[in-house]
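Posting for a labmate who doesn't have an account.
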Amino acid sequence: MAASPSSSSSSASYHHRLVAEFTIYHLITGRRLTRLIPHFTPEATVQTLLLTQSDRSLFLSFLSWAPRRLYFFRSSLPLLSITFLLRCRYRHHHSAITISRHLAVSFPLRSISDTLSSSLSLLTPPLPSLSIAFDLLIKSYSSLNNLSNALSAFSLVKGAGFVPSLFACNSILDCMFRSRFFIGKVDSFLAEMTRSGVTLNVYSYNILIRVYCARGELDRGLNCLYEMERVGCSPNVVTYNTLIHWNCKSGNINKAFELFRSMEKNVRPNLVTYNVLINGLCKQEKMRGARNLLDKMRRRGLSPDSISYSTLVNGYCKTGDMHQAQLLHREMALHGISPNVVSYTSLINATCKAGDLTRTLEFLSEMRRRSIRSNKITIATIVNGFCKKGFTDHALLAMAEIKKSGIKPSVGGYNALINGYCILGHMNEAMQTVKEMEGRGIKPDVFTWITVLSGYCRNGNLDRASELSKEMLGKGIKPVEAVYTLLVRAFCDAGRPGNAQNVFDEMLESGFQPDKITYTGLIDGYCKNGDMKSAMLLHDKVTKKGILTEDVTYSVLILGLGKLARIKQAERLINKEAERLLNKVNDEKLVHDSATYSVLVGHCAEAGFQSVVTLLKGFCKNGMMDEAEKVFQVMLDRKWKPDASVYSMLIHGYCTSRSVGKALNLYNDMVRDGFVPISMDNYFTDNVFIRGKERLV
């Protein structure tokens, strides 16, 4: 006769309890539990935990054995739930958080919640609530950046009628800050905390300050500090350091020091405080203040560390004060602080930039003697410095050293070496280095390819450059526009505008929009090859498309026309564009070279009267009186009689540029030539003189 379900269940329960009792007997008598392993089930293990829950020693002895021996231990939700709750009761925080993290990763939140609820009644005496367990669970979800489940667990706690703990709330706030994606939800969660009756502590405020500062809301961060003082929550060193750091980072060094002075009244600044301020001062090149702060640290009983010194050394190097940088470098050793790779890299970078490669090698030798390993940045700096001076052999030795040391060379280091080869024209070696990169699993970046492409162009191998560009495009190297622009410019400089036009057309066909640089390069190519018709047509086409050409485009056209001495075309361009060009120089602070202005002035020798007046007006309006004088002299040389408007423009220009003496002389010439200012001219000229004289007072 088959056993009934109830009798089978009773039999299983009896078996589980029997295994549990045998286990306890073995634990008490010190016998090995290995022989019982075949009889253990998740249910029997739960029974053992429940029977040992009132005896801390037996409970801990069993748990030191079971998780490592029973294969099902970490996969049984009921077993883990009982263990978790008992760990919470005994306040085994570290073990409890470890279990909660495992639960958070391995099981759905709803299953965890239901199992914990059903397990709670099995404990003797029972835990007062699940709030402690859920606090740790929320902490686990937050540390795993699972904000969604952390918030769901938070809602479950509230739904059960419990007030969420500050510990849990701070965990969620911290998760929101770290995830960045959810940083915008901080304000709404803060409001929820307030509604739940949770009072913020210093840790909460510190998180909020970090959140607001990271969002660029430094004023809100400061308001948190003021609120803390108002509600009686004392700021700590982290509070002040966070605010000082972000104010330094945003360049508000004065506010940072205001906070520092306030901090000194309430909290003792620590090493981090001083290092942050020193870094802020160095970034603004206020090296005297940074040095004074280092000395102040010592007077306050704080010993500067390697970060303090490295920051100052880097600051002096960047400001070009190598003498102070090296003095400070030696001072580190005198105070028993070993210079680190950061300070050496700063010194090496500075000496490389200064071309003092002998001193660079001395610093490198010092690093070896002190057993300080170079990092990728150090090696890249050395390689770049040697390559720029043409010492590729030394650069190769540096690369060999980094390979021997087991450090994976960086893309930057390889790029520096490739650039060195390209500068020397050793293109085969450059391409071999690219292949070596790929062989070592280092993917060449866009700068690698652009460097090689530029090398081929610079060395006149434009056909190979064109082939390489197709390989680059086939590999999906971006930005593609930079590749096309580089080739257009190279073909133009080589006197091959036809090839440049082909590349340009290919660019358009591929769906890429040329920019100002590309258009200007092509226009310049046509000008240099005497094809002014194509240059002018392309210029007009660009203008019609609404692409604003830079002043350099106008310069290219003017110089091209000047070389061909096509005065009629030059005159047309001057009439139409000269005043606009000069206004653009004034409005956008764009500066032409003297050659461009010389061409413009040179055209005046044969240009029409109106063109010359237009050019004169533009120069006067922009305060370019030396050029205006040259144009005026051309008018006199051509026996043109200046009218009152020409005199007025020149007088106004001189007065504006504070050359009132010249303005008075020209005014006398004007009267002598029979131009007596009357009505509006008189009013205009008199007022100009008055303003000019006032500016000299």
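Reply:
Got it, the structure tokens are right above this. Residues 564-571, 574-593, 678-685, 693-697 have pLDDT under 50 and may be disordered.
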